[in-house]
Specification:
heterodimer; A: 143 residues; mainly alpha; elongated; B: 503 residues; two-stranded antiparallel sheet; 21 helices; 2 strands; 1% strand; globular
Chain lengths: 143, 503
């Protein structure tokens, strides 16, 4: 992983940016230096992991990973077209599915509580400029 | 008395009713989140960061400081009652604190932890007030070369004191430095590593990275360990420690304070190292070391005072040099930058109200912890029993709201989830995310100082380690190399691993 990042930064710096000299460093100088350092460190980590039989890396749990991060993305991208209510419902349900024990009844109650809370505290209380209704609803009744 | 004058100024700022209120809210929220098992101060602050954006800088910083103390103390509460350290620095509190709780002495353990933290906080606040101004004076004389070397030292120290593999920690720092460089180059205006995505032109938002790496990652990792969630909470009956308890505790509290105050100033030190050191010391000099691990009150009093003192004095390098000693301070600096304040020695002169207000609020925050926590302990216990399946979607929504409100741009949510995933992989590969955050904050600063130093020396790289011309810079680098060398020695390396494994 580190190697990939390092190689990427070195290559990118050389390709795109003016290196400049040590005296007047161009924008590519410092990242290229660091990228090279990262490659070296990555190689050390790799060599070590090959040389020593360490404990296996923990199994990855993809379900919570995907659903939790998906929930965040869903919230962001549903806010503009769908409004706060839709976004919150989607994020809570998707996120909650990531947990082991999900029950629909609890999920629904939790969603309602969180929608109300977001509305009262963030929209009314802190006056954040979030849309409440989906975009196709003109003159949203909830403010 | 200049000191008193300053403190008076600070007190006036801190004790205005708004700031008292913010500090109170901060401490309350911090405890609220910090008390949840498995969530330490760093994720707590990261999650609550967005709330402070709308406040003015002084209030924001005071509130954040309140959150920090609250989270720290909340962690101790969890440690004592549930045998689950909320964070690394309360790992030692678990040892004796939980034993006390099992013997029905949870109340005194909590009270001693609060009293110890309060005493330590008061003393550490005074230390900050006296030590910060002269240090800032010195720091003002630093040129770019000194700054660069100091940052190198800071980063090296932070990695040395992180647990886990040293190489990985350094690699994480470098990765953080690189990610910090994304965005517009200050000197030339060239866009770097932005892939023509307009959102990246201003760089990656610090709060977003922090929330992703700590908040989102935290939730994901907690979800897979759900088995350990089922907790039995010890009962709290009487709160007040006996006279005997107090008699046994006052010396450990003072020693812990001294240890913590000293270690907190060192880069990479702070709360974690302080509590470990204090526990070891108490066990060594105790007349009855066999009681340690079986509910000795000294084992709670010492480390709790030490970690609070360390937490406070770690503000010193942050406030005077603008260099974060640990991840929490990195978050604080990030918050300052978001407020449009460049951290560094000039803050004290340019914004005395902010500087001294923050210091006075430290004392206030500690006083509030006592006021809040002891009477409200029942509520925290209730909170510990809320199932995680209700908690985590709520936390998720709050983080979403926070990130989205930054610029009303879904892009920010995307980036947060990307860093959440990255953080998860890092945890799995046993790479600490904390050094990365330090690097992320320092990346642009380091580059700028490096460039300036090289410009001044006309490309002569020896400026950094020429003992004749730049003795200070040389000293910093020497210390950094020495630290690395020491840690590479097999003997000490083993000790270091022992210290972090000991439990």
């Amino acid at each position: 992983m580190f190697i990939a990042f390092g190689v990427f930064f070195v290559a990118w710096s050389f390709a795109r940016y003016n290196m400049g000299s040590a005296v007047r460093m161009g924008p590519g100088y410092f990242p290229a230096l660091l990228g090279a350092l990262l490659v070296v460190l990555g190689l050390i980590v790799l060599a070590k992991s090959l040389a020593v039989d360490g404990p296996r890396v923990d199994a990855f749990h993809y379900k919570p990973l995907l659903l939790v991060s998906g929930s965040v993305v869903a919230y962001g991208y549903l806010m503009k077209p769908g409004g706060l209510i839709v976004a919150t419902i989607a994020a809570v349900i998707v996120g909650a599915l990531g947990g082991e024990e999900f029950r629909w009844k609890e999920g629904v109650i939790l969603t309602i509580v969180l929608v109300l809370f977001s509305w009262l505290v963030f929209v009314r209380g802190l006056t954040l400029p979030f849309p409440m209704c989906p975009e196709f609803v003109e003159n949203c009744p909830i403010r | 008395m200049e000191l008193l004058e300053h403190l008076w100024l600070g007190a006036q700022v801190a004790f205005s009713w708004q700031n008292v209120l913010y500090c109170l809210i901060g401490a309350l929220l911090g405890t609220l989140i910090g008390v949840l098992p498995g969530i330490g101060p760093v994720p707590t602050i990261a999650m609550l960061l967005p709330i402070t954006f709308k406040l003015d800088p002084t209030a924001a910083l005071i509130m954040l400081a309140g959150i920090y103390y609250g989270a720290q103390y909340g962690g101790s509460t969890t440690a004592i009652l549930v045998n689950l350290p909320g964070e690394a620095s309360s790992v030692v509190t678990v040892l004796d604190g939980y034993q006390m709780a099992r013997q029905g002495r949870a109340g005194p353990a909590l009270a001693i932890a609060a009293i110890g933290s309060f005493v330590a906080g008061c003393i550490a606040t005074l230390i900050i007030a006296t030590a910060a101004p002269p240090l800032a004076e010195v720091a003002l004389k630093f040129g770019p070369a000194e700054y660069f070397s100091l940052m190198v030292l800071g980063l090296v120290a932070a990695t040395v004191l992180a647990h886990g593999s040293l190489v990985k920690a350094i690699a994480m720092v470098v990765l953080g430095l690189l990610l910090g460089l994304v965005g517009t180059d200050v000197n030339s205006g060239v866009l770097r590593f932005t892939f023509d995505i307009p959102e990246l032109a201003d760089g990656i938002g610090f709060a977003i990275v922090a929330m992703g790496m700590f908040g989102v990652t935290e939730i994901i990792t907690n979800l897979e360990q759900r088995a350990t969630r089922e907790v039995s909470v010890a009962k709290v009956t009487h709160l007040f420690p006996t006279l005997e308890d107090l008699k046994r505790s006052w010396a450990p509290i003072l020693r812990g304070t001294a240890i913590g105050s000293f270690l907190g100033i060192l880069p990479g030190g702070g709360a974690l190292l302080s509590s470990f050191a204090s526990y070891t010391v108490e066990k060594k000099i105790s007349k009855h070391p066999e009681q340690f691990g079986k509910g000795a009150i000294e084992g709670v009093a010492g480390p709790e005072s030490a970690n609070n003192a360390g937490a406070q004095t770690s503000f010193i390098p942050m406030l005077t040099l603008g260099i974060p000693g640990n991840a929490v301070m990195a978050l604080m600096i990030g918050a300052l930058m978001i407020q449009g304040i460049a951290p560094g020695p000039q803050v004290m002169n340019e914004k005395p109200a902010l500087f001294w207000g923050l210091i006075a609020s430290m004392w206030l925050g500690n006083a509030m912890l006592i006021v809040l926590n002891l009477p409200l302990i029942g509520i925290w216990i209730k909170l510990l029993q809320v199932p995680y399946r209700y908690l985590f979607p709520s936390i998720l929504i709050f983080m979403n709201v926070g990130v989205f409100s930054l610029s009303n741009n879904p892009w920010d949510c995307l980036i947060m989830s990307v860093f959440g995933v990255l953080g998860y992989f890092c945890v799995k590969l046993e790479c600490e995310p904390a050094p990365m955050i330090l690097g992320f904050i320092l990346g642009p600063l380091m580059e700028e100082n490096l460039r300036r130093a090289m410009l001044l020396s006309r490309g002569d790289a020896t400026v950094f380690f020429n003992p004749m011309e730049k003795p200070i810079s040389f000293g910093f680098l020497l210390a950094a190399v020495a630290l690395l060398a020491i840690i590479a020695l097999p003997n000490i390396r083993k000790r270091r691993e022992e210290v972090f494994v000991e439990e």
